[in-house]
Task: inverse folding
């Protein structure tokens, strides 16, 4: 019978053997399958290595980062990767193997290489992008028509997410007074539930797609954001297949997630998303204002042409009418002389005609002459009044049209708080045309000011 | 009969068409007046859509939650 050992003695034997057999520190590649921080600030992990099929685990071990070291490594890792250590992440760590008689074997982590994790994440992201490209779907959401006025917005976010309330207040307090209709679909924006939660939400919104103009996926920035939850094939695939344009603002300064890449538009922060939506509407309104100006300008031109034509007609009508009147006058007086002569001749020839017939003939002739004269006067009057009426009618039409045009005039737009900026008398539509030290004129509804440009952020 | 919903896109297309007609110079003063009034009406409707709340949409959204 060999020597009997107590359990403690055996454990200590294992400990010492391991210490002798594995005296060095080792750099080890592993995947985090569990991670938690205890009350004392120590970090307890379970590390695994999976089969290439990504399903079965071929090795597993406990690991610890003591609190003092953990505080440093945590912020070091987060600063470089922009991610916190989490389940599913591949890491490269420097470890010492330790064996404790009570707690068994564990790896004590003393260092971590964030660049390895960055590389791993980049490779994973590239694989997802490649797969979406191979599926032929990667640009599908970008190919959708963007609405002229994105007012009805489905929000994928969480009430508690930083940035959600910023987004709402930014949107509702926009300088233009635009109305937005928003509906929040409560969704987990980080953690292991992110994938299923985002997909469920997108499916739900898709059922009511007709009620919305766009979908926004937003989450606050803060000091740290776990962007890699959105480096996810299934979320990205659902975005590519979504019937409405998707805009992301998931708060990451350094990098784009795959979801950002496939979205119609990706922006860094929720407030940037709000600005984007407001600007889309402002651009549409600008376009409308430009068309209004075009209508005013072209209509004015047509009115001016018509005015000129009326004036030309008026000037032409006067001498023609005068000529006609004098022609008629001449004809009439010729007729009169002829009648008198004929009358006289008849009277001379018929000296024997009784006097009552004579006087009848005279009065008849007089009345014919008077009638002719008054019809001439009437014609003259008619000509004058018809011409005047025609001119007034046309003038009225033009004035009426001018009133319609006033509704479109920029003055009304200015009253709502817009201004027109001009440089050297030319209207400026892009900030890129303005340089530092330029003197610009700003037209308000009630006056003009001159100002000097101190800085153009776009240059 | 249900009222046809105002479509911003269609309104903008219509206004653009009116501008095209005016610019082409084919309209006489009578037709010009009609078209300008129509454009002014559509533009007013567009402005209204941007700045006045449609309670109907709010209530539909409330029902969805």
Result:
């Amino acid at each position: 019978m060999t020597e009997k050992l107590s359990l403690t003695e055996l454990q200590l034997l294992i400990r010492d053997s391991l210490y002798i057999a594995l005296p060095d520190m080792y750099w080890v590649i592993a995947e985090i399958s569990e991670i938690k921080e205890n009350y004392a600030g120590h970090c307890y992990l379970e590390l695994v290595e999976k089969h290439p099929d990504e399903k079965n685990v071929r090795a597993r071990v406990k690991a610890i980062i003591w609190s003092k070291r953990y505080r440093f490594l945590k912020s070091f890792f987060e600063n470089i990767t922009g991610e916190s250590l989490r389940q599913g992440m591949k890491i490269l760590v420097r470890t010492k193997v330790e064996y404790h008689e009570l707690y068994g074997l564990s790896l004590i982590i003393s260092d971590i290489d964030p660049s390895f994790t960055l590389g791993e994440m980049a490779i994973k992201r590239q694989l997802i992008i490649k797969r979406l490209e191979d599926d032929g779907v990667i640009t599908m959401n970008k190919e959708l028509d963007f609405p002229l006025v994105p007012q009805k917005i489905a929000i994928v976010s969480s009430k508690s997410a930083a940035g959600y309330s910023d987004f709402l207040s930014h949107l509702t307090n926009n300088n233009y007074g635009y109305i937005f209709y928003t509906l929040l679909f409560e969704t987990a924006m980080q953690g292991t539930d992110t994938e299923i939660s985002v997909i469920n939400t997108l499916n739900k919104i898709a059922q009511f797609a007709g009620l919305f103009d766009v979908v926004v996926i937003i989450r606050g920035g803060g000091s740290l954001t776990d962007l890699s939850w959105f480096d996810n094939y299934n979320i990205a695939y659902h975005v590519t297949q979504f019937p409405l344009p998707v805009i992301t603002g998931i708060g990451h300064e350094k990098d784009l997630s795959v979801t950002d890449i496939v979205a119609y538009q990706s922006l860094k922060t929720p407030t940037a998303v709000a600005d984007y939506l407001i600007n889309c509407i402002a651009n549409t309104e600008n376009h409308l204002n430009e068309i209004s100006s075009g209508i005013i300008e072209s209509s004015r031109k047509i009115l001016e042409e018509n005015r000129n034509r009326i004036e030309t007609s008026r000037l032409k009508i006067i001498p023609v009418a005068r000529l006609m009147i004098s022609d008629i006058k001449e004809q009439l007086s010729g007729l009169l002389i002829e009648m008198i002569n004929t009358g006289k001749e008849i009277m001379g020839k018929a000296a024997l005609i009784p006097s009552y017939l004579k006087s009848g003939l005279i009065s008849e002739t007089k009345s014919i002459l008077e009638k002719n004269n008054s019809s001439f006067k009437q014609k003259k009057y008619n000509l004058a009044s018809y011409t005047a009426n025609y001119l007034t009618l046309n003038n009225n039409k033009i004035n009426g049209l001018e009133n319609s045009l006033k509704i479109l005039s920029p003055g009304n737009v200015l009253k709502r708080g817009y201004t027109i900026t001009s440089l050297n008398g030319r209207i400026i539509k892009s900030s890129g045309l303005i340089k530092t030290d330029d003197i610009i004129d700003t037209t308000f509804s009630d006056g003009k000011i001159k100002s000097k440009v101190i800085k153009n952020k776009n240059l | 009969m249900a009222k046809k919903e105002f479509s911003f896109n269609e309104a903008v297309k219509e206004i653009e068409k009116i501008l095209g007609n005016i610019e082409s110079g084919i309209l006489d003063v009578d037709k010009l007046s009609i078209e300008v009034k129509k454009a002014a009406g559509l533009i007013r409707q567009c402005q209204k859509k941007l700045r006045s709340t449609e309670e109907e949409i709010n209530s539909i959204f409330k029902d969805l939650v």
